[in-house]
Amino acid sequence: MARRISFDRPAPFRAPRIPQAGRLRRVAERKGLELRPLAGPEIPMPPEQDQALADRAVAWMAAYNGSLPEFIVYEFLTLKKKQREGLDFLYQNPIFGGRTSFGGYVADFVFPQRKQIWNVLGLRWHLLHTEDRARDLVAKQMLTSRGYLVLSLWEDSLLTSPDHVLELAWQGMEEVNRNV
């Protein structure tokens, strides 16, 4: 008998199995590996940047708990395009209930007047697992159906050619990453 799929209710959430921390530590020590925090690898600041920029980046990351690529986008919006947070754009805005609601989503940069959403995507967190890619695709479809233009800004593009990528995004071009 074929299994019926109901679209009325969401499927129950199954939490991923998390290995015990002590066991991971012992395996890592035995193999000579270094355990890093869950936030991912450190992204070095380009050497040609001045100390004032580095100080602003450290202060911003401490205040907003953001990443270096998100800081690059934030600086582009506030310094180059003279946008004001909370008025012209929203940073880390919960949409459809955010992380606490089923189907919820947190968008990195939302432009309500322009009906645009920019998401800064890291290769490790948004490309490695099929579940992450599927979740991003579903969220993009939901937001597109509400009339938003959703642009994905990949961290490697932001770190190598930020001005080019951000100007394309500012112009609302969907091929942001294809032209890099």
Can you give a write-up of this model?
This protein has 7 helices and 4 strands. It has a 4-stranded mixed beta sheet, sandwiched between helices. The protein has a domain at 66-180: 3-Layer(aba) Sandwich (Endonuclease, Chain A), CATH 3.40.960. With 180 residues, the chain is α+β, with helices and mostly antiparallel strands.
Give the strand order of the largest sheet, numbering strands 1, 2, ... along the chain: 1-2-3-4
At CATH level 3, the topology of the domain at 66-180 is Endonuclease, Chain A
Assign the CATH class of the domain at 66-180: Alpha Beta
Say which CATH homologous superfamily of the domain at 66-180 is assigned.
VSR Endonuclease
Question: Strand count, sense and closure of the main sheet?
Answer: 4 strands, mixed
Percentage of residues in DSSP E strands: 5-15%
Distance between the termini: 50 Å
Radius of gyration: 19 Å
- The secondary structure category is alpha+beta
Low-confidence stretches: none
Gross morphology is globular
Q: How confident is the prediction overall: mean pLDDT?
A: 77
Quick description:
This protein has 180 residues and is an alpha+beta fold.
Any descriptors?
single chain; 180 residues; alpha+beta; Endonuclease, Chain A; 4 strands; 41% helix; 14% strand
SSE map:
Elements: H1 21-31, H2 51-64, H3 68-80, E1 90-95, E2 105-111, E3 116-121, H4 123-126, H5 130-145, E4 149-154, H6 155-160, H7 162-170
Parallel strand pairs: 3-4
Antiparallel strand pairs: 1-2, 2-3
